[in-house]
Amino acid sequence: MTASPSPAAGPIRTGRQPLSLALTAGLLAALALASVAIGTRAVGWSDIWAALGGRVDSIATAAVATRLPRTALAMLAGAALGLSGAVMQGVTRNPLADPGILGVNMGASLAVVVGIVWFGITALQDYVWTAILGAGLAAVFVYAIGSLGRGGATPLKLALAGAATSVAFSSLVIAVVLPRADLAGSIRSWQIGGVGGATFAGIGHVAPFLAVGFALAMISARRLNALALGDELAAGFGERVARARATAAAGAVLLAGATTAICGPIGFVGLVVPHVCRLLAGTDHRWLLPFSALAGACLLLGADIAGRILARPAELDVGIVTALMGGPVFIWIVRRQRIREL
């Protein structure tokens, strides 16, 4: 028997959800058009339609052709990070959980850097497998550390364990890269986090992993509703708590690891998006998860556009913009939630 959403968690806004979801999808479509149109070189609608039709016979259409995969990657990466954050918050019942704060992104980053420097990996497919392995090991490590002591894996202990792990892994990345001056520049650029230079071939390499991650996350929605009631009550409703938590966590790790492999570690998207989406969708994960995916795509795409506008004729990497946006929101969440469980 599957548990229903927790009555104590807040009202289920069934009347507002379809309209809000449609508006969010409309906003994403508008941002996608803006992402294709905005850049160092201004382009017109005729150039956009020509590029969509496969023509690259002018500088303007060539510019649009390079922005198309960048736009697609920003949407996919944002959706993956937003969904991953919502799942992690549901699994841990921790309002501060997200792939960056819990050390998952940095675990993936460390694994990729070690693979590049020590084992000479160069193919994107190898990056993806390595990043997913690193993300998974980091998630297990943080959860194990946060589970030590009285009370088990409380939100406060998980947040502290994740923060400490991120700092430690970041230091290890620097230690691994320092002796390799020939690779330091490219690795530092990748570590900032960005979607520039995206290609459809590269997106094709990570798409299968993201698809599996999306599927695992979405099928876990009802189980996350059950977990929100607490482990004992969820088990009383017939839910296999360990399996439910492992399935959802696996989806979140796949999403975070694959995204980190192609974009670098991008922080705060998975933290900010679920909190905003709960205001629109309530706490029912059957609505919250698709909302988080759409809103995450909107946030990362908007941040990428903002980075192009703010630093013209150069641009700010999207990882810098999300960090500037996410820092104040993180402080607000800490003050509002006071590290309570969801």
From TrEMBL:
It holds the Pfam family FecCD. Keywords: Cell membrane, Membrane, Transmembrane, Transmembrane helix, Transport. It comes from the Bacteria. InterPro entries: ABC_BtuC-like, ABC_transptr_permease_BtuC. It is a multi-pass membrane protein. The chain crosses the membrane at residues 71-88, 100-121, 127-146, 158-178, 198-219, 287-310, 316-334. It is found in: Cell membrane. Belongs to the binding-protein-dependent transport system permease family. FecCD subfamily. This is FecCD family ABC transporter permease.
